[in-house]
Amino acid sequence: MAHADGMNYAPQGKPAPVCDPGEFRFAAAGLDHGHIYGMTSGLVDAGGEQAWVWDPDPDKVAAFRKQYPQVPVAASFEQILQDPTVSMVAGAAVPADRGPMGMQVLQAGKHYFSDKAPFTTEQQLADAREITARTGLKWAVCYSERVQNEAAVHAGLLIHDGAIGRVLQVIGMGPHRLGASGRPQWFFQRQRYGGILIDIGSHQIEQFLYYTGAADATVQYAAVANYAHPQYPELEDFGEANLVADNGATNYFRVDWFTPDGLRTWGDGRTFVLGTEGYIELRKYIDVARDEVGDQVYLVNGEGEFHLPVSGTVGFPYFGELIRDCLDGTDRAMPREHTFKAAELCLAAQRAARTITAPPPR
What we know:
33% helix
């Protein structure tokens, strides 16, 4: 997938099977967002076997089979749900449809793996919490800017090993390239994509909870704007929020659709983590004007200054952990309440956001 295209960006890990061939079969259904490719690759690399692919749009199915020619095409979504050999359904439907799809999947007795953001309404989240508590099935979410970025994965290892002491603050910057001409209609419909703080803000809030070890947080401030795209009146091209965690750690993040054409990738994603004994900077996708390769970690602590280029060294262990969770009945890859709390705070931030209005450019 094109590195310059965020919607179709599918990071590649490395094979690290955690199960026997055929032990974990999954289907891909709902191909509206290109993240389905990265989700599928992650599961395959961890030993998952592709059982089916389905989407109501045959062109999307054909494109998917160019990448994965061996996967059979299901005649309907119901065929997947009725297949007793399928353990999980992975889906990247339109954001507003991800919650309802998950309900169908769990009602059929299967685990569900959703693209982010998993919900666009509080009711969808409440339904997911109820059905997972009742069935014990997984409702996993691919917060890919942490679990499918080797710099982000390595930062978690450093933090959990105490490299910077107790985490006090996380600052996240999530710029994306708009590429409006290549976007589907739903991308510009507020009810369908949910709002920018729900959509791409989901990555930022999840990583804040993870790096700080927080169980909850409150939204102190949030704002959204459409600064430069009046032709798309429901688009929010800028968003920001400030949160305070239950352990006192703070978070500020900014997300936007203003990546300039001169950047060699779809967005210069950065994360800054401040601890009591040091700090970390992540240059996730590019080291601007220097190295086209992302996954750059910069660490400063009492032992010195360190540049750690980790591309190709860490992999994406989340996918193997998720498969083992499904097979073993454990909850280690991303605990259910963490998954849902990140989604809950995205919804809260979007609900609390004030709309910034600005005069049209001169």
